[in-house]
């Protein structure tokens, strides 16, 4: 997916929305059921962007599964502070793990107990 974002530059969620569309709140905003970006908060995903901890809820879980299924890269951002999301490149989901031991290990690292249903593994696309 070609985009107009500049690597290491910071953007607001409104800036991101203006280019790709989708929600200004979801961590995987979608348009027509296609994930159009990944907006990852290291407070909840300390190994972002390579490791994404998927939370609970039908929409959250379905969107994570869709990201893996679609196979395409999306512009990916890591939050630094309010209204400061750094573009780190285009990433695609390559694997999703439901392994409870793996989930527990990653959730513990993030200080998230009981709210992680799976793990998405992302890789950069150059």
Throw out a few tags for this protein.
two-stranded antiparallel ribbon, about 35% strand, about 130 residues, single chain, alpha+beta
Give a quick precis of the structure.
This protein is α+β, with helices and mostly antiparallel strands and about 130 residues long. The protein has helices at about 15-20, 60-70, 100-110, and strands at about 10, 30, 35, 40, 50-55, 75-80, 85-95, 120-125.
Task: Give an overview of the whole structure.
With 126 residues, this protein is an alpha+beta fold. The chain has one domain (10-125). The protein is 25% helix and 34% strand. The protein is built from three helices and eight strands; from the N terminus they run E-H-E-E-E-E-H-E-E-H-E. The strands form two sheets. Strands 1, 4, 5, 6, 7 and 8 form a six-stranded mixed β-sheet that branches. Strand 6 (74-81) and strand 7 form a beta hairpin. The longest helix has 13 residues, at 58-70. It starts with 9 loop residues before the first strand and ends with a strand.
The main β sheet shows up as:
6 strands, mixed
Q: Structural class, from helix and strand content? A: alpha+beta
**Strand share of the residues?**
25-35%
CA-atom Rg in angstroms: 14 Å
Number of E strands: 8
Order of helices and strands: EHEEEEHEEHE
- Helix fraction? 25-40%
Quote the average pLDDT. 94
Uncertain parts: none
* C-alpha termini separation: 11 Å
Shape: globular
| Number of self-contained structural domains | 1
Q: Tally the helices.
A: 3
Give the arrangement of secondary structure elements.
Layout: E1 10-11, H1 13-20, E2 30-31, E3 34-35, E4 38-40, E5 51-54, H2 58-70, E6 74-81, E7 84-97, H3 100-110, E8 118-125
Parallel strand pairs: 4-6
Antiparallel strand pairs: 1-7, 2-3, 5-8, 6-7, 7-8
